[in-house]
Amino acid sequence: MTTVLKPLKKGVAYHGNRLLRHIESDMRDIVEHNFNLVVHMFSHNDWDRHKSIMKEIICMTEQEGLEVWIDNWGLGGPPGDKSHFLSYYPDSHQVYSNGKIDPVRVCLNSPDYRRFTREWVDAVRDIGGKFIFWDEPHLAGEEMVNGRPAVWTCSCERCRRLFEERYGKRMPSGLTHEAEEFRIWTVADYFREATAYSTGKGMGNGVCVMLGDEFGVNLESIESVANIDTLQNIGSDPYWYGYESTDPYEFVYKAARKNLEISNRYNKDHNIWIQGFAVPAGREEEIISAADAAYDAGARNILVWGYRGAESNDYRAQQPDLTWKVIGDAMYRITDRDRNRRRELSRDAVKRLD
């Protein structure tokens, strides 16, 4: 019996430019650096100011043979932009358990925000989007104690009321098991509704979760999101720069293996992200090890944040040109390995016929 291998998808995040004359050359540059997928941001600002331009950008990207995922960048706040939605609905802020209002993050239980999300999904469909990448959904946490936030969201009046309806008691100020469970339920319930709506519009859905314990949903608690039928792809971003004495291969391999175990358990596809931003000078080669680790762990949807070492951002690589060169080398390396693997399997199949 012939072994069927999944296609190798190699993606890169692209944002910071809406000038069409640069898009054409940048997409060709992405192809030349051995990618076959681009994750395009579609922020609130893009929706307001660049909607027709984004439609052209998607078309130009696909004309280069690149698959496109659309990122909900900053729609509800970080990661990404601060949420512009809150300018229109100031009663939809996340609120911390100590009563402090988060100035930039949206409460996922806000019915206004859920309606706003549906309108954004409609806009994604209008610009030609086929797959939505829900980027790092989370609730905020602060003042970490033994890996858990002592101060957390969301504890707004709306969430307090929902908590009391679910548990028959007032929401605690501490992060009890029930409070933690409620945070996870909040994220899952939002995505159950959002992805059901986008599926109804003919689009696929993927999500990427962060690894830290302060975010409400991560790989430790992803099961509540993983069992959503209208979510096809579950990923994570094991970014290693910033951790002292961290071996990039080991760090990425372990996280990717864990991600794949969860994805396979729920019969989902996956996405594993390689860090190509905030790369210290002299450490660019670690990107090669990280991409190898993801591939060795079994990942076949491997993506990099972001284009040219994210040089349009303050968190860019210190040496963007060299970083981009190494990123391209990393993608070529796993492409070549994948081609060799396919050739070996084909040869073995032919030998069995003799």
Low-confidence stretches: none
β-strand amount: 15-25%
Major β-sheet profile: 8 strands, parallel, barrel
Shape: globular
Helix content: 40-55%
- Distance from first to last alpha carbon: 14 Å
Description:
By secondary structure, the chain is an alpha/beta fold. It is built from 11 helices and 12 strands. The chain has helices at residues 20-32, 44-49, 51-63, 85-88, 111-126, 157-167, 177-200, 223-226, 248-265, 286-296, 320-353; strands spanning 9-14, 37-41, 67-71, 93-95, 101-106, 131-135, 141-145, 148-152, 204-209, 233-236, 269-275, 301-305. Strands 1-2-3-6-9-10-11-12 form an 8-stranded parallel barrel, surrounded by 4 helices. It has a two-stranded antiparallel ribbon with strand order 4-5. A two-stranded antiparallel ribbon has the order 7-8. Helix 1 packs parallel to helix 3, helix 5 (111-126) packs parallel to helix 7 (177-200) and helix 9 packs parallel to helix 10 (286-296). The protein starts with 8 loop residues before the first strand and ends with a helix. The relative contact order is 0.11.
